Amino acid sequence: MTPAAVSLDELCVNAIRGLSIDAVQKANSGHPGLPLGAAPMAYAIWKRHLRHAPSQPQWLNRDRFILSAGHGSALLYSLLHLTGYDLPLSEVQAFRQIGSKTPGHPENHITPGVEMATGPLGQGIATSVGFALAERYLAARFNRPEFPIFDHFTYVICSDGDLMEGVGQEAASLAGTLGLGKLIWVYDSNGITIDGSTDIAYREDVAAKFSALGWHVQSVDGMDVDAVDRALQSAKAETARPSIIIATTIIGFGSPNKAGTSKVHGAPLGEEELRLTKEALGLPAEPFSIPNDARAALDARAAGEAHIEVWDSLLTRYRANFPELAAELDQVLSETWDCTSVAWPEFKSVATRKSSHDCLLALANHFPTLIGGSADLAESVYTDLHGMGLQSAQDPNGRNIAFGIREHAMAAAVNGITLHGGCRAFGGTFLIFSDYCKPSIRLAALMEIPSIFVFSHDSIGLGEDGPTHQPVEQILGLRSIPNLNVIRPADGAETAVAWSLALESEDRPTAIVTSRQNLPVVTNEAPAEHPARNGGYVLQDSDGVPDLILIATGSEVSLALQAAEALEGVNSRVVSMPCTRIFDEQPEAYRNSVLIPSIPSISIEAATTLGWQKYSDVQIGIDTFGASGPGPKLMEHFGFTVANVVETARNLLS
Amino acid sequence: MTPAAVSLDELCVNAIRGLSIDAVQKANSGHPGLPLGAAPMAYAIWKRHLRHAPSQPQWLNRDRFILSAGHGSALLYSLLHLTGYDLPLSEVQAFRQIGSKTPGHPENHITPGVEMATGPLGQGIATSVGFALAERYLAARFNRPEFPIFDHFTYVICSDGDLMEGVGQEAASLAGTLGLGKLIWVYDSNGITIDGSTDIAYREDVAAKFSALGWHVQSVDGMDVDAVDRALQSAKAETARPSIIIATTIIGFGSPNKAGTSKVHGAPLGEEELRLTKEALGLPAEPFSIPNDARAALDARAAGEAHIEVWDSLLTRYRANFPELAAELDQVLSETWDCTSVAWPEFKSVATRKSSHDCLLALANHFPTLIGGSADLAESVYTDLHGMGLQSAQDPNGRNIAFGIREHAMAAAVNGITLHGGCRAFGGTFLIFSDYCKPSIRLAALMEIPSIFVFSHDSIGLGEDGPTHQPVEQILGLRSIPNLNVIRPADGAETAVAWSLALESEDRPTAIVTSRQNLPVVTNEAPAEHPARNGGYVLQDSDGVPDLILIATGSEVSLALQAAEALEGVNSRVVSMPCTRIFDEQPEAYRNSVLIPSIPSISIEAATTLGWQKYSDVQIGIDTFGASGPGPKLMEHFGFTVANVVETARNLLS
């Protein structure tokens, strides 16, 4: 083949391939198969459809692109480098090295142009639902005829792994139900998984299935740029349903000895096979050499700046035509979520799930782009935004999202809405079902985004539903996730602190953990001044140096207060510790002033004792599964009584 | 309506309904809607199809029945009581009370006749795949023409919540791929969820979807016993594909003011509505009164004993005809998994994932009904049973199960195989993806069954794949689950201990956590005598009382040994702690002899430090996310070096 016979499209596609496999080979680690097979579809999206601006990766109305099959990260880094993002060749050459901007799987907080962290399969497609939902909500709220301020597509490249994962299937079902017409998944159907042919484990009729889920379905030759292009045009034209394009590809295309096999999935080609592959693709042998014509054709910077210019001009005219809306829009664009002027409710001795609801309603009134919902437990978790509509194709203004009994896709969608920008989102379920969405919670923490999760029914105190529904180890499990605030408030005022911290957070997700049962009011400071903002604080003190420190969280704080009262002759201090992570981040002097190291201490939490050894000498908790029975009886049964705390204290002090 | 007009079928169905709603009302807690709507389908299954023996609930060839919609537990307890299981009326009357045999959601280890714990949605249907798989494997291995030793169906009643959950969708896809012809799901399609009409969140064409997944699909009137009966007959006749019967029902049927609404889903009817409902159903007003004709008709004890008699006689003839097979079968029936005569391999300085593979192969050779597989990572996690076939409809003898990229359904299926009896099962994936299957792991622990989970790539040591793939908090998270052994072996010999303990366990699941990277041999005792059986033990000691105790697990044990060597002038003890739970269960004297309370100690584990405060004064670990880079460089970067341990020790001792 002479260079003259190669079209510019082909040259570009092969340039993407070559850069990707060079990066994998230099790292001696990574996945060459996906970039070789999926380069044509990626090129079709990025060159012919994606409206983006490499010089302004955060432009709010950009089309979003998510590589759900994150193991093909080399493909994404090649695209970002070649289209002109701030990702120099030296970074591509440092693929998979400590401190580089090209980690093994994409990470949004590290690399400009990466929309989200992907790699754990299913997360990309599930999160994409949130992106598309945020776009639809913002468009419904702010767009006016001839003023499409929010108007973009969300494109995804996904793999069979994404489609097999439960979270991905939940997301497909949810997107179909919601009728997200601007969501487009391109399925890189290469017939190969790590263990061999996909047939051994995956025999669905994917097209028929997605039709049944309410999707617009097309099947194309994924190696044909023009065919993918045409399918993308049809997908964009279909506005009532999300689209999936099933694109048949050859994994490792170009590799003479490995293409079409699982050998090319997850290991470098090797020097010799790399040479042969480049030869077959008509690429220069020299590593990281990019044909000039391809480089010029792929550079998207000028086009991006033109997009932004058009949008900025639209925005200027919008401001003139709709001054009130524009003021609201500008607040949204500023991405500030300052809670100081929120009209917080008065708090009563109710369950913290109800206090949480009061806070949420106050916040929803204050912030028009705070949206969310629950996994079919709106009336139990108390997440319903009264009178604010149910999000659907018919009512895209609806601020309540019925995620269905799909906790995992809910958490991923909350992440997507949050990542999109312009909106903040919450998702609620019972604390026990945080287990169902843990991977997405973890990803929120890793991605450094302020997703909000509301988990009610937080202990055996929920009662009769029994051990399948009673959290024991979940609070510790959440606390152990790096960069996640887990806040278990003791009463209404602490609940308002939890919500304030959650909204004000910029780079850390929050889990708010609430009770099913009523709890007495024990504090009354306003959220901006409340000492709970320190994570842990002295709620009630004795005269002088205490003899004993009782540390408690949530529903056990009032128990600690009662026990302190009952401990006659003992100078007891009660510490409320709604968030251990924030407490850990306080200055040492503060921490030592709250938990005086030399004073005996007891922690009380209706959950596993494991982990509390960090803060207390003796732990009152529950290290077995719970049981079915009325909540108050269970609390007694498992030792959450004044008598037990008093006895434990007397034993410790003697 | 006069009593004469009521058929016996109707009388029985209403007796089931009445008992269920009385139990809910007496508890003043529970879910009346499902029992009222699903009683006809339950009656059709239990009266006309289910081959079971109430007097011998553990009969191995019984049909299995799983109430996946576990919130309808009152229905199941009614069925168990009325068909003659050891569940007296007094227990039904103690519904949802502490210590009763009728907890809020079904629990197999508490109630005779309950096959598994259900309640967390999706788990029942997903676990049912394992039941059906175990039956097919055992039948393939042991049955001979005219000797159907293993020959039973697995029936499930499920709800829309089950079908929405990701784990349920994974299971549906897996069952279709595997062609499990004796698996029958009856979907109680009542159009109502907690938050209202299912339409708001669930608009799939369920029939078309299941067809696309390779299922046999029927739609029937779920209120019509005969219609359900006929559909069950067709489902049983279809042997190549699993069957789903979409049965349209009216939630809360009979309740004049609440039927067909979400009000009847999860709260008692109330005394007045209960009275009206019973009146509408033609039932006596008196609580817990059961018409004699219904009681007589539903009693299944005599029929059950006849089933067993037939089977026992078949077994006797089988033993005579196939003495060799019968010997193997008898061993299987005895459910003993004694590892003392296993031909363990010799261990080398390889990754513990490879040592684990050697152990697994030795065990698979020894135990013919040990089966399992991985979530598309057989060659990375090392779970492949070489030459033992791939389980499929075409090769039901296959002992390797390709679960696909469906970790959650894998774990649930492993539970199902284990619960079935006759088999033991394992499932493998990367440790990070234990997050994807946590709810099923927890359920195994709650159900007190010895499922085996193999989790490789257990730390940042896995290298370039980066933080999305690097476990940090997962080991702690697993350790915090009550009744789960988490074993992180330091070398091959400890890995053999882990596998021994896993197989020998009768009522506790095990997670075996292995390294991707090579580890040196540090111990060589045979598994039956290895001190690792104590959970933690002194691996290397100093002369006399130590100055310092270094505690480590897995890949960090060899680091501790090197550090002890480098700590000149310090009498250092090295403790290997592969399983904290087993260590915690040792006598206090033993524990204090290993971790001498007065001696300064440092724990070293390439994972979160949280939790280690229980055992050590100072912790070396990683409390942030990992990073992408070569494994050895990451270990250095995060402080897992001799120099850092030595410095930490010197600081502690000074």
Strand order of the largest sheet of chain A: 9-8-10-11-13-12
Overall number of structural domains of chain A: 4
CATH fold-level assignment of the largest domain in chain A: Rossmann fold
Mean pLDDT of chain A: 97
Largest binding interface between chains: A-B, 105 and 104 residues
**Regions with little confidence, pLDDT below 50 for 5+ residues of chain A:** none
Going by CATH, the homologous superfamily of the largest domain in chain A would be Thiamin diphosphate (ThDP)-binding fold, Pyr/PP domains
CATH architecture assignment name of the largest domain in chain A: 3-Layer(aba) Sandwich
> What is the overall shape of chain A?
elongated
CATH top level assignment of the largest domain in chain A: Alpha Beta
> How far apart lie the N and C ends of chain A?
89 Å
The biggest sheet of chain A, with number of strands, parallel, antiparallel or mixed sense and barrel status, is: 6 strands, parallel
**Which structural class do the helices and strands of chain A define?**
alpha/beta
Helix content of chain A: 40-55%
Percent strand of chain A: 5-15%
Number of strands of chain A: 18
Oligomer status: homodimer
Number of helices of chain A: 24
